[in-house]
Amino acid sequence: xxxxxxxxxxxxxxxxxxxxxxxxxxxxxxxxxxxxxxxxxxxxxxxxxxxxxxxxxxxxxxxxxxxxxxxxxxxxxxxxxxxxxxxxxxxxxxxxxxxxxxxxxxxxxxxxxxxxxxxxxxxxxxxxxxxxxxxxxxxxxxxxxxxxxxxxxxxxxxxxxxxxxxxxxxxxxxxxxxxxxxxxxxxxxxxxxxxxxxxxxxxxxxxxxxxxxxxxxxxxxxxxxxxxxxxxxxxxxxxxxxxxxxxxxxxxxxxxxxxxxxxxxxxxxxxxxxxxxxxxxxxxxxxxxxxxxxxxxxxxxxxxxxxxxxxxxxxxxxxxxxxxxxxxxxxxxxxxxxxxxxxxxxxxxxxxxxxxxxxxxxxxxxxxxxxxxxxxxxxxxxxxxxxxxxxxxxxxxxxxxxxxxxxxxxxxxxxxxxxxxxxxxxxxxxxxxxxxxxxxxxxxx
Length: 445
Ligand code: NAD
Fold this sequence. Notes:
41% of the residues lie in helices and 15% in strands. By secondary structure, the protein is an alpha/beta fold. Helix 5 (96-109) runs parallel beside helix 6 (129-141), helix 9 (203-234) packs across helix 11 and helix 13 (311-322) crosses helix 14. The longest helix has 32 residues, at 203-234. The chain is globular. Nicotinamide-adenine-dinucleotide binds at residues 7-13, 30-33, 36, 83-86, 97, 100-101, 104, 122-123, 156, 158, 160, 278-279.
């Protein structure tokens, strides 16, 4: 059992906290938002994530608690994980939250005699842990990393919507340490996670593994979208069929006991409305900006972002094939979360699409099974009708635009049966059977 303090109780910090508690560690999540601390201590998860509420209620007040008192949390633990936000400010990664956390942890370490390890779980550009984090910790604690306390990077690979399952059954654990002692202590956190590849390395390599992984996924998405645009320009090519043919390659689909199994990466190799969320856009942008600051021309990463930024305009271009003017048209947008099974709307492709629809004068209704409230906070009420249910959202629509692949939207054909006049269904994720609705169009068609 390790005593762990985690700074930041957001998607990553809270999930990490309850999962480590489930594995028998004693965990305190330090959170600066007092409202979140209260909710967590009442056993109410502040975010929508399958299985999180159950785990939280099982451990809160026992092996897990939330607190605002960082010094006590650090002094009374053996390992501190930094899991605060690392947004992209338009020019570079914004490390303010990480720096503040490092200052506070360093201040606590000044009051602690026992050995302690600090690890950065947040996604930070390579070099951050041994650079600014080490400097701030050493300055505030008046101690030396490696000699007096341990330091490392332990990036997180969970996917929102399946975060608990991902954390409990990781595909890999990446731990970078400044020395063997730090590495050993961090690896102890994961010793009960079964036969999982443990990648022990230095902190900067660990940080780069995280960026390389996310950049690869983003590259797959933009590649598939560029092929879709090319297919549309040629005409009479369905990009979905093209990708089905690509997926069938033995590089991407393997034979396993007579069955053909597609590699999960094929789910990123499909045309769509573009990638969003709190990770891919900001991480690719931050790595490219970091490269440029180092004098590296990041041509692939730049192109990945450029293709992604064009996606909303591609959706609008498709709609204009059916409605030369969108002025006054009743358009229903389905899906506001950046992906299904989460209420996270950060960088959701729904927002630029909705904003463009509004600019074109469309009358926009929107519906998401769980993300209406956070989306309303981003978009405001002006001009957008947020609907409480799928049927209400479809009622009277002239065009229905599917942005997020929620399972609930599979009911769209059934709910539209008999609608007269039939609305156009524009399938931004190619999740419906084209023959299931009277008027269908989809990305890559
Ligand atoms: P988040 O914004 O949901 O959570 C961060 C939390 O930290 C917030 O609740 C904030 O109030 C709190 N915080 C900030 N400074 C603090 C301080 N000094 N003391 C106490 N609390 C503080 O962010 P997130 O989505 O959990 O992401 C955290 C990091 O993990 C980011 O670097 C992100 O890139 C990375 N990451 C995220 C995901 C994901 O799917 N969300 C996956 C892997 C990695």
